[in-house]
UniProtKB/TrEMBL annotation:
This is LLM class flavin-dependent oxidoreductase. The keyword Oxidoreductase applies. It comes from Streptomyces tagetis. It holds the Pfam family Bac_luciferase. One of its GO terms (molecular function) is alkanesulfonate monooxygenase activity. Residues 32-348 form the Luciferase-like domain.
Length: 379
């Protein structure tokens, strides 16, 4: 099965990415992305007050601020169905390839990602859509692949959800076909367990070489193996920097066994104010107004069979504070200390959210980014 691009070593892949000027391969030690701004309530399951809304105008504004601040990525959550609770968390949401296409037109430098449930989309169609957004953005498109873990969501598409390991076998065939569509000029034939493709063509090819940056959030052994073999970044869930260090080392060593490497991304919301007192007051308020109903439902499984969500089962608070991610809470100085700790643990980028994306991104730009630069985390 394909690992990197046909005929390219990992070093050549990275060289091609850097020559394409891909932001996720720039020299910043801690890359930054805005995560979840395509879904109602973003990454925070709470009724706490915010100006955040799911309108196109607001969506563009968030992306334009992040672009101006030099963030590397806009990364959406793939969601077709709300998760219930009082907020019906994420129940209103924008489809992610078309979201990325719109943002590609509205921004200049930031990468625009789609997050795609691979079982919902034919790989030839997904490869073609991805190339189209790559051209609209002049080589700034990235693809985050998810295998689908939310049973009721996957069942919307007919049939039953595949058992866990089969999801990754399916994903491996899917991405092999997509990579061949992006890189091969001749008709592509492929026979596998799930696909029977005959004489398939896709033109034009991506602007970004050799194909769009690939991300996956596999956290189970099968997920880590898939990601280490096929992707540029593993997007991991972790409870603390020590766990981040272990997971990062594990997935990197799997990648090394395939004669390649990859970067590690984490995620979490930023809860930051000038003083510890103000930060604590905001944190308490978010939790007090939290949607505990959905947090309980998610932590009790939702039929997910998902390694990483089991890991965070007891952590309903973490769900409210940011989808089970690692929340960064504190003053600007404390946030930067925490970022430095994560960088030291092997995290190459944080995909972040806020209670109020527009207001707090601006604050982050004014108060946190300069300190990240001083700390050598960004230039
Ligand atoms: C950082 C992160 C982001 C994720 N984003 C999505 C998403 O947008 N949509 C989705 O259905 N699943 C998402 N997932 C779930 C993963 O795709 C995956 O199912 C989960 O991490 C379980 O890993 P496993 O399948 O290897 O057990 C995300 C998981 C993590 C850790």
């Amino acid at each position: 099965m394909t690992t990197t691009a046909p005929g390219l070593s990992y070093e050549e892949l990275v060289a091609a990415r850097r020559a394409s000027g891909v932001a996720m391969f720039n020299d910043n030690k801690m890359k930054l992305g805005v995560f979840g701004s395509n879904c109602s309530h973003g990454l925070m399951a709470t009724h706490a007050e915010s100006t955040y809304e799911l309108s196109w105008q607001h969506t563009q504004k968030i992306a334009q601020i992040a672009d101006r601040l030099g963030f590397e990525a806009m990364l959406p959550v793939a969601r077709y169905r709300g998760m219930g609770g009082e907020t019906n968390f994420n129940g209103s949401n924008f489809e992610t390839h078309t979201w990325a296409a719109g943002l590609a037109q509205a921004t200049e430098n930031i990468m625009v990602f789609s997050t795609t449930h691979v079982p919902t989309k034919n790989p030839i169609v997904a490869a073609k859509e991805s190339v189209t957004v790559d051209h609209i953005s002049n080589g700034r498109f990235g693809l985050n692949m998810t295998m689908g873990w939310y049973k009721a969501e996957m069942e919307m598409f007919g049939g039953t959800q595949r058992e866990h390991d089969a999801r990754y076998r399916y994903g491996s065939e899917w991405i092999t076909i997509a990579k061949r569509m992006w890189t091969e000029g001749e008709g592509v034939d492929f026979q596998g367990e799930f696909f029977d493709i005959k004489d398939a063509f896709s033109d034009p090819k991506p602007i970004q070489q050799p194909y769009p940056v690939l991300v996956n959030a596999g956290n189970s052994p099968q997920g880590l193996e898939f990601c280490a073999r096929e992707c540029d970044f593993n997007f991991i869930a972790f409870a603390d920097p020590e766990e981040a260090r272990d997971t990062a080392a594990r997935v990197r060593s799997i990648a090394h066994s395939h004669k390649r490497d990859l970067g590690i991304l984490g995620y979490g919301n930023i809860i930051c104010r000038d003083t510890e007192k103000e930060t604590k007051a905001l944190l308490d308020h978010i939790l007090e107004k939290g949607d505990w109903e959905v947090a309980k439902m998610v932590s009790s499984g939702l039929g997910s069979e998902s390694g990483s969500f089991d890991k965070i089962k007891a952590l309903q608070e973490r769900f409210i504070l940011g989808y089970g991610g690692y929340p960064l809470i504190g003053t600007p100085e404390q946030i930067v200390e925490q970022m430095a700790g994560l960088s030291e643990a092997g995290i190459d980028g944080m995909m972040i959210g806020f209670l109020d994306y527009v207001e707090e991104l601006q604050y982050f730009g004014e108060r946190v980014l300069p300190l990240m630069k001083e700390a050598g985390l960004r230039s």
